[in-house]
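Course assignment 3, question 2. Fill in each field.
Student: A.L.
Task: Predict the tertiary structure for the chain below.
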Amino acid sequence: MVAVDAGAQANDNLIQVNGVIVTSDTLRTVPEATIQVKNKNRGVESASTGVFSIVCFKGDTLEFSCIGFRTKEYVVSKDAKNQYLTIIQPMIQDTFYLPETIVRPLPSREAFNYAFTHWRIPNDYYEKARRNTNSRVMAALAYTLPRDGRETQNRTMSQQAKDAVYYGQQQPMNILNPLAWGQFFEAWKRGDFRKTDNTYYGDNY
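Answer field:
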């Protein structure tokens, strides 16, 4: 009976808070706002219409936060009689002041040409990402790096599936495939099989 009474008391303290988040001046809904139970690792996010729903204990404090708005707090009453609560939470838009930036032109056309030619501007994150995802870099990494566990598993499963198709019979050979012979002759005409000397001996040779 003690365990049952403790569980019933815990359920009585739970409450589901439903509501909508709006701006305080125009009453427009605030989408993708974060609603978190203060000092607890639990929270939800408002929908595109500003509607949210969260379950917490009576007496908890809900924190409402969103980029461009001031953080608001709402204390759920401990004396709430029902297990459901509906609220409309207004949020005040916040203003961010950036530090002053002064833009000065170069003194002359020659100075601009020199700066455009010789200045070395550090690469930003976008440029670094663009270089790291270059097709040649990706191809070199794919050729030199060993396969990870997922790639090895996919290759093994693909080979097993291919073998299962011809289970109990002889697999076809491309030596009897006219399309393969056609591709071979086309490659022969293009000179794909010519020997090329691409040996690189470094800068000392």
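Instructor remarks: The longest strand covers residues 14-23. The beta strands are 14-23, 34-37, 43-45, 51-57, 61-65, 72-75, 84-91.
Grade: pending
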